[in-house]
Amino acid sequence: MKKSIIKPKKVCIIIMLLICCLSQTFAATCGDANASGSIDVVDALVIAQYYVGLSPANFDPTAADVNGDSAIDILDALRIAQYYVGLVSELSCSGTTPIPGTTTSSGGGNITVRARGTMGGEILEIQVNGNTVASFTMTTSYSDYSASGSGTVRVAFTNDDQLENGMDIQVDYADIDGTRYQAENQAINTGVYVDGACGGSNSEWLQCNGYIEFNTSGGTTTTSGGTTTTTSSGGGTTISGNQVIVIGESFIAMSHEITRNLENLARNAGILPSNESFIDNSVSGTRLSGGISPTIPQQYANGNTQKQVRWVIMDGGGNDCLQGSCSNPPTSSCQDLQNAANAANNLLQQMGNDGVVKVLYFFYPEPVGSSYSDLKAKLDVLRPMIQNIVNSTSNPQCYWLDLRPVWNGHPEYTSDGIHPTSAGSEATANAIWDLIQQNNFFSGK
User: Fold this and answer.
1) pLDDT in tens, 79-102
2) What is the pTM for the complete model shown?
3) In this structure, are residues 253 and 238 in contact, taking their beta carbons and an 8 Å threshold?
């Protein structure tokens, strides 16, 4: 009988298969957020769903904090997607539920509060009918804090908490028995307690008992330092449609679905009256600098002749890259890209002079397809140029949103490689709205 010989090449293949199987066994604990027994894009999806306040089936939070930062957020979904396609080789879970603190049940319904402390380490309590049912040490990124109970829910500091000047709690929302209550004008910070409104021996350290109350009978009541404000049911200060302008080029203007979705989200939150709409002056083919009229700065000026605009949502720079002439490979010295960055900087300065309070600047996802390789190279140069300008602008207050993590792994978001489908418009609007909620964007008239 002829003996069977296992060749070295086959041995290597067997070892690789064993390593793969072993790694997948580990990953079922870390990264297998939907407890399916494997790690794939569905795990990234359920983490994203959880992050925006949905309740995905079979969600296991102990397997979801894959970057080990004690928070479940969009970065965890991105890391799983990167792991799935081979960009990162490992996941790092804490091995325990990354929601900090302990939960004590008082019976009744389920409460989830999404909040963060601006410095981290602040103590948050969830109180039901005046009784503390859970206590947490907060993180600097938005995290979900869960408890059980029935009745009026408060998010509070305890009496003996000492808060350094400038520290605050920011609450995004509370989900009480499946009903979401928004928190508007909701930052509990030491600034409102100066002049003895809260105890404390000096202006550096204060003892405070501020809280945000979610009135489950309707509406949201915010109480801080003895001042109480009741906002509309569904949460939020009501704004006028003509106080918000959307400007940009074909990424918005091709269908205007991004704007329509944002308006619906604002109406559902009780922020935008049902009979009003945002100003949408976006025009396909336009640039920040040069090109056809109206340029993006002109779109803003045309929509703000009465100086009534307080909030701006915009993109810009895509056509400056597409139509611009640069060396290959492009660099930041390309004159067309410099002109675009200068125009963006001047536009933000003008907005500040006009009384605009906040600007949300979102930048494009990766173009799909080899035909857009030149465009991608230019976008990769212009992106950090614009981001630096946005991040360094203090008046108005500016927020930067990079759409690449939102779009990566979703070919259904575009049909031509650069413009959003209906699904892409919805995903973009949801990402913008998430940033709006996290930063209490529609405030500070």
Assistant:
1) 888 888 887 778 877 543 333 333
2) 0.52
3) no
